[in-house]
Amino acid sequence: MNLLRHVALLICMILAPLTAGAISPPEVQVDYSADSTMETEGGMTMKSRIYHTANKDRMEMGGSDGMTSITRKDKKVVWQLMGDMYMEMPMDSSNTSGMDAFDIVEQAEVGQETINGIKATKSKIVAVKKDGSGKFGGFFWTTKEGITVKMDMLSKDGDKKMRMTSELTNLKIEKQNPALFEIPAGYTKNDMGAMMGMGGVPNMEELKKNSRQRQSGGKQPRDSQAGESLGDQIPDVNKMMKGLFGK
Predict the structure, then answer these.
(1) Tens digit of pLDDT for each residue in 180-207?
(2) Which of 18, 73, 138, 155 has a CB 3.0–4.6 Å from the CB of 55, allowing a cystine?
(3) Burial class of residue 15 (count of CB atoms within 10 Å of its CB; 0-12, 13-18, 19+)
(4) Topology (CATH) of 3-101+162-245
């Protein structure tokens, strides 16, 4: 697992519902929404708003001017929305967590705790990569519906270690609007190849530039408040990697 996949695994494990009961957890059957906060020991904090319904997930970062990711397991695609554009990526090994490469070597229920007013089961899990090159372990707090409301884990890939914590707040289990999981009318599909950066991660600077140009009729605006706000609120994955690992 390279460093980018190392980070992607951690992110996937919080953004997708995960229980410690199996390497391929069952789909959460209830609709819900929540605010998510993920922190790493390298100093990165990622805040997002998430929505879930059967086989569909939505994650919003950066507010109204930010980026939205819609995962459609029923269609086996991931849509990345920004400005009035979107990219479509197939759901395959390049954008899934890669949990099939790991074996669980330890798992146990620790007890019951209340997280932000929600009763949850605390479990411990330790897994190793089948080729012996990496492992992860930690604690997961899961509701009776299978929603992971908190996680505290340590991952090791060779000599690289990372600790990550995540937590859901304002969790509401209620029916979600189907429109949240569709591409809005008027959005233009963009060529994925021209917009992708290192390791298949969206090139955020290119996305922001193209979005601003489209919104200004093809000319770069002299003063783009939306672009500045977006740059402040959405982490650049390339910069994140440099900050975490010094490369």
Answers:
(1) 999 999 999 987 544 444 444 455 555 5
(2) 73
(3) buried
(4) outer membrane lipoprotein receptor (LolB), chain A (2.50.20)
